[in-house]
Structure formats: structure tokens, C-alpha cells
Design brief:
Layout (H helix, E strand, L loop, with lengths): L1 H12 L9 H9 L5 H10 L1 H4 L11 H9 L2 H10 L15 H13 L2
Helix pairs in contact: 6-7
Length: 113
């Protein structure tokens, strides 16, 4: 029973946003890159592949996808990245990112700029 409840809650967390991204929003996400060159390099190798496509990971800058996550607070977002969540591995595939870099990457992913 406990396993079934855990699975149900886990799957609920994987549901797509109430307002899925449009094709235009996906094209915009594909073009977005952090302005900071060092952060852009980390984003390109660790975040981009999952956060610029229609899928389970929230799209870069897609407010509807990020709203319920942001409502939990930025510290909760950081904790999810550090530990991993659903299909995202711990530290978001950036084992060499500092917590400060992860915070900056989260800010970029949420805001899209």
C-alpha cells in the first residue's frame, strides 16, 4: 500500500503543466542561453537537453510549468536539484556545479533570461 501511494504521488509530480508550451515557446526556449559564458557552458551540457523540449522537465522560461515549483520556494527548488527529482539525477547532471551556480541556473530556467 505504501509503495502504491508513493508511486501515485511520484507520478502526480510528473504531470505536464496545466497549460502546455506551444511550439513557439519551445523555439524560444531552444534559443535561450545564460548571458554569463561560464554559466552558459554548464547550462549547455547539463540542463539544455531536457529543459528545451516538450516533456516532463519544465521548459525554460515557461511560467505555467514553473509556477507550482516556484510556489514551493527557491530553496525547495535547490534541494530538488541537489537530491534529484523524478527523472532528473542529483545535481541536474552537473556534479561540478557549486550550489551558487545551481541557484543561478535555476533562476535562468525559471525566468528564461
Amino acid at each position: 500500500m505504501a509503495l502504491a501511494l508513493a508511486l501515485a504521488f511520484g507520478l502526480a509530480a510528473c504531470q505536464p503543466a496545466a497549460t502546455p508550451p506551444t511550439d513557439a515557446e519551445i523555439l524560444q526556449a531552444e534559443a535561450r542561453v545564460p548571458a554569463d559564458v561560464a554559466l552558459a557552458e554548464r547550462y549547455q551540457r547539463s540542463c539544455r537537453v531536457c529543459h528545451t523540449v516538450r516533456g516532463q522537465a519544465p521548459l525554460v522560461g515557461h511560467t505555467a510549468s514553473w509556477a507550482p515549483r516556484v510556489a514551493r520556494g527557491r530553496d525547495a527548488l535547490l534541494a530538488s536539484v541537489q537530491a534529484g527529482l523524478n527523472g532528473m539525477p542529483a545535481r541536474g547532471l552537473c556534479p561540478d556545479c557549486s550550489d551558487e551556480e545551481l541557484r543561478r541556473l535555476i533562476d535562468f530556467l525559471v525566468e528564461g533570461r
